[in-house]
Amino acid sequence: MFALRPSEKSTSSLLPNILPCRIHHDGAVNVSLRHWSPVTDEKNPDLATAYFRGRKLRGRRVTLPKGYHGVVALPTEKKLSPPEQNSATDASDHNNVNTRDDDEENDGDDGDVEPLPMILETQGTFSHLMVWEHETVPSADDSFVKGINEWIRFAEAMHSDTSQTESKSENEEPQIES
């Protein structure tokens, strides 16, 4: 499990790029000169053109849904300190140790203690990201473009209160996309 902590230094607003390639490296790179310089389209500021290793890329800016933001974070060696428990809580927990229903299976996990969460340090945040494709602008059906909104809606449906979801869906007309 992970715990997210703000950086001790100020964090910046970033614009992540999803490139149509795989880079088989995940560490630091000693770069003296950057060759990434996307040019925003004059007619539509949500579109851009860039060249990566001589290949033309076209990009589309994707905005995260209202109320959401992305976080770029780095792992640290630090762990979250355990929560302090008072003696009243300990006593009440001690009384409820064996309150399982008879039909529940005993997995042998009763004595296991969850490991403390590792701390991730925030390096920056974002509310937009750029999705790139070779030669053409990514369409609305692009897996990354479509996936961002679909996964967020799916997560909301999974974690929302069912009574709110049902009343909301009863009051709204179904929307059919063509």
TrEMBL record:
UniProt-listed GO biological process terms: RNA catabolic process
Domain of life: Eukaryota
GO cellular component term, pick one: ribonuclease H2 complex
Signal peptide: none
Stretches with biased composition (Acidic residues): 101-113
Cross-referenced InterPro entries: RNase_H2_suC (IPR013924)
Spans annotated as Disordered: 73-115, 157-178
CDD domains cross-referenced by the UniProt entry: RNase_H2-C
Compositional bias annotation for Polar residues: 83-98
Pfam families xrefs: RNase_H2_suC
Identification of the protein by name: Uncharacterized protein
Source organism (scientific name): Emydomyces testavorans
